[in-house]
Amino acid sequence: MASRVLSLRLDGDLWERIRDHAAKRGMSAQDYVIRTLIREDFDERFMAAVEATDRFYGRQDISGAQTRPSAGIR
Predict the structure, then answer these.
(1) What does the pLDDT read at residue 21?
(2) According to the model, what pLDDT value does residue 8 have?
(3) Distance (Å, rounded) from C-alpha 68 to C-alpha 47?
(4) Which pLDDT tens digit goes with each residue over 51-68?
(5) Contact (Cβ atoms closer than 8 angstroms) between residue 29 and residue 19
(6) Is residue 37 part of a domain?
(7) SUPFAM superfamilies per the record (predicted)?
(8) Mean pLDDT, to the nearest integer, of 6-11?
(9) Please, which residues have CB within 8 angstroms of residue 21's CB and are 6 or more apart in sequence?
(10) Who's near 61: CB < 8 A, 6+ residues apart?
(11) How many structural domains compose the chain?
(12) Structural domain includes residue 17
């Protein structure tokens, strides 16, 4: 797998929050951001698969509430 570089300009307060969250998990800020992006990508793909399955089987949302697949994951 080839690696690519992504450069971001972040507000100082946001950068400190990212570093704090990463430190709480024993991670580098870079690893924390990458894992967050991967998790969001998974959530989107998972929801798209659920919606496609529901359309295939003709199901309708009975409860009216949707839950993100990452709910409760920290």
Answers:
(1) 93
(2) 87
(3) 8
(4) 888 888 887 655 555 555
(5) yes
(6) yes
(7) Ribbon-helix-helix (SSF47598)
(8) 90
(9) 32
(10) 54
(11) 1
(12) no
Mean pLDDT of the chain: 82
pLDDT band at 38 (very low <50, low <70, confident <90, very high): confident
For residue 65, is it within any domain? no
**Residue in the block written with tokens 């003709």:** 58
Q: Dihedrals φ, ψ of 9, to 5°?
A: -105, 120
DSSP string computed for 2-66: ----------HHHHHHHHHHHHHTT--HHHHHHHHHHHHHHHHHHHHHHHHHHHHHT---SS---
**Taking the model in full, what pTM does it have?**
0.56
Higher pLDDT, 71 or 24: 24
